[in-house]
Specification:
Strand content: 35-45%
Number of helices: 3
Structural class: mainly beta
Distance between the termini: 70 Å
Shape: globular
Number of strands: 29
Length: 414
Amino acid sequence: MKQLYFYSFFLLFIFFPLPAQEIFRNTVPGADVLSLQISKDNQLINNNLLLLEKDPEELIISFDLTGHGRRTLSYRVTHCNAVWEDSGLDLFEYMAGFPGLLITDYRFSQNTIPLYTHYRIQIPNEELQPLIPGNYVLTVFDENEPDTPLLSACFYVAEPVLQATGTIIPHNGRTYQQLQLEIFPFRNSGNLYPAEHLKIFVKQNNRPDNYVQLPTSSSVNGNRIIYTNHPALLFEAGNQYRTLEFLSTSRTGKNITKQEFRSPDIHLYLAPDTPHTPRQYQKDWNDKYQIGCTGCDSPQISANYYQVHFYFNSPYLPEGEIHLNGEFLHNEISGKSRLDYNQQKQHYEKTIFLKGGSYNYQYLFVSQGKTIGSTAPTEGNYFETTNEYTVLIYYSPPGVRYDRLIGYSVISNK
C-alpha cells in the first residue's frame, strides 16, 4: 500500500508539475495608481540602488492615487534571487522590522487636474531595515485586499565587494555596441571569489527585455574576469532617446503641437514621430523621467496630469508590433506599451496619462512571437549613441540560500 502511494505521488509531479515562480518587475496592475518612482532622497532622477551599510541617502518609493481621501495602504518587502523570483527566505532573515506596515506619509494634491493623493515610502526607516544584499521587491496593497497588489517596486541592496569597468567599441558597421568588460575586487584589494559561484548580469538602459547573463568559466585571468568581444555583450546601439516636456497649462511644452481641455482632462498632442534615419545629437537621460511644473515649490503635489497622445508615422508592419519604451512605462513590453495602428491616418498611436514633467522615450519594434525589442526599424542604430550598461554581480556559494549582490557598476560612453 505504501508503495502504491509513492507511485501515485510521483505521477502527480510528472503530469501536474508545480507552477513556475512569479517573476517580479516594476508593475502597476490598476489604472488608479500613477507615477511610480524609485529614487534616492536627494535625486530627482530614478535610482533604485541602496548600499547595505552607511548609505548616506535613503531610497524613496513614491506614487499617486487618483482622488483625494486617504486609503489604508500597507506594504511588504520580499527578498528575491538574481532572476527576481522569491528567494524563499523568512522575513527575519533579510529584514529587521515588521510585515504589513502602514503607509503614513501622504499628501493631497493642490489645485490640480485631476485631484490625487501622493504617497511616499522611505527605505530604510525606523521600522524596517534590509539585513542582507540582494534583489528586493516592495509590494503595496489595500489593507482590506492584501492579495491584490496595487503596485510592485523593485530595488537593489548591494555590498561592494567586486566592481566592473569596461569600454564600448563599434561593431557590425557601427550599428552595434560591443561591451568589453573586466570584473575585479573592489579597490583592487583581496582575491576574486570563485568564478563558478558568481552570477553576472548586464542590462542596457534598465531594459529587462535584453537583459543577459554571462558565463564565467572561461573568462578568469588571475583575480579578474575578462570578457573580450563576447557575443552576449553585443547590443544594438540605438539612438538618443526622444524628449518630451510639459510643465504648465499656460504654455505649449517641448514636442507638443496642441493643448486642449476636454472635461475632465487636459489633452496634449505630440508632433508625429517618424522613424529616425539620422543620428540624434541631443542629450538624454537614457529612459528616465522627472516630475516638474513651472512656478511650483512641490511638483510632487502641484503638477497636473495630462492625456498625452503619441503618434508614430509608419506603414502598418504586420510582422510585429510597435511599443513605447521608457521608465515611465517601467520599460515593460506589454499591452500598456503597445501602440495601435490607425489605418485611416496611416500611423501608430497611443494615449497615456502622464504627470507634468520631462520624459525620455523611444519606440521599439517587437517581432511576432518575440519578447526582445529592436531599435533598428524605429530609431536606427548608431554607435555614437550614449547608453548605460549596468553590471550586476551575485555570489551564490554552496550552502547559502540566496544570491548575494556583491557588485553593482554602471558603464557609460557619455
